[in-house]
Amino acid sequence: MGQITKITAQKRRGRYNIFLDGEYAFPVSETTLVNYQLAKGMTLTPAEEAQIKDSEVVAMGLEIGLNYINHQSRTRHEVKERLAKEDFPEDVIGQILQRLTELGFLNDVEYVQRYLEANSKMGEAGPRMVRHKLEQKGITADLLTEQLATIPSATWTEAAVRAGQKNLRHHQNRAFKDQLQRLRVALIQKGFDEATIAAAIEILDPQPDAESELALLKAEAAKQWRLKQHYEARIRKQKVKSALFRKGFDLDAIDDVLADLAEEN
């Protein structure tokens, strides 16, 4: 048996020190203090003291979990991993997760729905990428399949168009053929299927600009011509031609530009 002889507030807000029989015994949170109605003069049995300490461990974990969630929305798996890093026992983690769920702070279904809604409105990820990212957050395959099925194909096409617009802007100073290749690769990497990619490209309807294409070709040809100036003339021309072709320029246009360069040099 031990009698509470003093309760003092810590510098950290919401934390208190409990003294039993004149000696410091253990710290508690404000939640634990209130829940057990701890007060000076109260007598605690060893079992009650152990119970309070166990509850305090849960309260500490709950505080950590809440702080983690407050920064941004989290999945059950993410919170579990965060608590595990703090070395909380499995049974304690289970209690904390249950409490956070009861309080409405943890709900994987709502998390997935919010994630999909955000991607549908402003995102650029396809269903495969979305599935992969959410799987990494611990969302179950069944839940993902169920929720992904609620997204209409037109919504995925809109996301692909957003991704495509960004990609085309980023690569606008490349040969048109190279732009199209990079666009397709980017959309595949974003997790869109072939049908969605085809629909998005049809909407984007990228068109070549002959004048800009020729200017790009001339600039790149001049650059490659300088880089390969140490080669013999015939080999130099072949290497420059290969480099330009790999960059997506038309072979006939390449020949014309190289002919002009050869004459100038």
From TrEMBL:
A GO biological process held by the record: regulation of DNA repair
Chain ranges of the RecX first three-helical domain: 63-100
Domain RecX third three-helical residue range list: 211-258
Organism: Lacticaseibacillus zeae subsp. silagei
Name of the protein in its database record: Regulatory protein RecX
Compartment(s): Cytoplasm
Cytoplasm in keyword set: yes
Gene that produces this protein: recX
Function: Modulates RecA activity.
GO CC annotation, single: cytoplasm
